[in-house]
Write a structure and sequence with these properties.
- The structure is a homodimer.
- Chain A has three domains: about 80 residues, Orthogonal Bundle (Arc Repressor Mutant, subunit A); about 90 residues, 3-Layer(aba) Sandwich (D-Maltodextrin-Binding Protein, domain 2), CATH 3.40.190; about 110 residues, D-Maltodextrin-Binding Protein, domain 2 (3-Layer(aba) Sandwich).
- In chain A, about 40% of the residues lie in helices and about 20% in strands.
- The first copy, chain A, contains nine helices and eleven strands.
- In chain A, strands 3, 4, 5, 6, 7, 8, 9, 10 and 11 form a nine-stranded mixed β-sheet that branches. In chain A, strands 1-2 form a two-stranded antiparallel sheet.
- The first copy, chain A, starts with 6 loop residues before the first helix and ends with a helix.
- At the A-B interface, α1 and α4 of A face α1 and α4 of B.
- The structure holds a DNA duplex (30 and 30 nucleotides).
DNA sequence: TAACCTAGATGAGTTCAATTCATCTAGCGA
DNA sequence: TCGCTAGATGAATTGAACTCATCTAGGTTA
């Protein structure tokens, strides 16, 4: 069984030994010399022998004191270093943001220069992954989570909700880039699909879009065709669309810049509801103010 | 400037990390789990990040916690070892007694078996030296000091006062071992001298003894002869006397056993006052009870 | 050599950081 | 689904740490 003395007594001892003066130790510790004297006396009682020779002056360590001093000093040095290391950079440390790949690529990364302009002192580190990282384990500071509902296990804020509709390059369309009026006409073009990780039957896939659009427009024929081109990840489907390879059902949020620039267009007016983008973080996170700044910026940036 | 957190918080953290349980840490530290929780939270605030992941169970260290834990554990281990080493053996440690050489040889050492009989649990370590060892520096626990007056700088007790008179073996004397009546007759024998460290003009040397005895017995001739044989240390002079090489002015205390056994005799009745034997120790010495036992024993042992 | 100054000691009284208590929450297992 | 358990929260309490008043010893200076 490990037995430790009151640690305050070690603190007083070490400071007095370093300064070889109770008075100076007291100044360093922000107490009176008497407090130092009491603590050292306590430690001497525990050790059952003197650790300092007080008389005659000057103060000197006894043999036992000399043996103990470097052990305590080195221990405290290592504590101070480790604590400084644990808390260092937290203020200066980049805010680590984890986000689904598509959102990181199409929404976040293109807007980073605007973040840097607005918040030059808060560097961001972007961790693009479709995996859900454990924030409590410290793997990231803040997560952008794409979910149907507000996550309940951590602090969360809703930033956006998106909708899904057919998207392609203007050049792809035979009508000179104007929106298609009859949904059935979409079937003349290659349909690009991507997987949804959660296997939600209501996820806005082509199959779901077509089935739902048919209730509004009975002209859409029943078909086994669900897609012509399929990708595992959303970001790759978007890349294929942008390369003019077909039409995909895309999130209006993720491709908002492409829509605004005209690089991509809404191929048909009918849309399906998507999910929400939530900013998620550990409650009372030390970088809370940076997180709040990031949240506000996300809501306002165009 | 080195900056340390409240050490109690490190204590709680380390115990919780070792047990990977706040509850068990609390049991070890003898506090409630709440106290552990508060301390760890305080430390996390200082580090500006979590050190433990509480949810979901089981409790786990964060990355920062993992980095801090071995540093703190190792530091505390080294403290506990050093403190145990500083206090170990103090209770079991021999009482270190420093004494003038002559007293150690002729008085103390021959009586050690009696000490062992009476106090089997208190071993003695005898440091025979005519040097004055610094008790405050922990070089010895208790000193037998031979001085004219009670030492004032430390706790002291007078044990004996001695007197000095001519001493020789019975075989040395031409009259069959009977005491010499006329002091002048002593001059027919080799006079053995030893140095007094303190150069006291009233120290009981042959010169002083003869000068003082002459005021009582005018028959003692003026003489330049101060000694025939001289030694640096008292113990060597006594050894020469015991070997039948002459007569020395000796302390009745130091050679009390030799006088009692008849190995040495008082060569003449005239005596000079000596000094006192004082037992000296650091006030509030941890082995105070052993010191008191030693003091009592010295006074009573024959 | 005496007076003054300073650093550490002693012990009673005071203070505040550490701790407890009462209550709540979340998640784990039966 | 319910009961149990471990950790969290915050106000109230406690006791170790600290201060204050006074003393002592020794170091320096005039």
């Amino acid at each position: 069984m490990r037995k430790l003395p009151p640690l305050g007594s070690l603190r007083a001892f070490e400071a007095a030994a370093r300064h070889m003066s109770f008075r100076e130790a007291a100044i360093e510790l922000g107490v009176t010399p008497t407090a130092v004297s009491h603590q050292i006396r306590l430690l001497e009682q525990i050790c059952k022998q003197p650790l300092f020779r007080r008389r005659p002056r000057p103060l000197a360590l006894t043999r036992a004191g000399e043996r103990l001093f470097p052990v305590v000093r080195n221990g405290f040095d290592s504590f101070a270093t480790a604590i400084a290391s644990a808390s260092a950079g937290v203020g200066e440390r980049a805010l680590r943001v984890t986000s689904p790949n598509a959102f990181a690529s199409r929404w976040l990364v293109p807007r980073l220069p605007k973040w840097r302009d607005e918040h030059p002192k808060i560097p961001l580190e972007i961790i693009g992954t479709d995996e859900v990282l454990d924030l409590r384990a410290g793997n990231a500071d803040v997560a952008i989570r794409y979910a149907r509902r507000m996550p309940a296990d951590l602090a969360a804020q809703e930033i956006f909700r998106d909708i899904f509709f057919p998207v392609c390059t203007p050049e792809l369309l035979a009508n000179g880039g104007r929106q298609i009026e009859r949904a059935a006409n979409l079937l003349q073009y290659p349909l690009i699909h991507f997987d949804w990780l959660n296997r939600d039957p209501e996820a806005p896939t082509w199959a779901h879009w077509l089935a739902t659009a048919r209730s509004v427009d009975p002209d859409i024929p029943e078909t086994n065709k669900a897609w012509d081109l399929s990708f595992r990840e959303e970001i790759h489907a978007i890349d294929a669309v942008a390369a003019g390879q077909g039409i995909a059902i895309c999130s209006d949020v993720v491709i908002s810049r492409d829509l605004k620039s005209g690089a991509l267009i809404k191929a048909h007016t009918f849309s399906l509801p998507g999910y929400g983008f939530y900013l998620v973080f550990v409650p009372n996170h030390p970088q809370r103010s940076s997180i709040e700044a990031f949240s506000s910026w996300m809501r306002s940036v165009v």
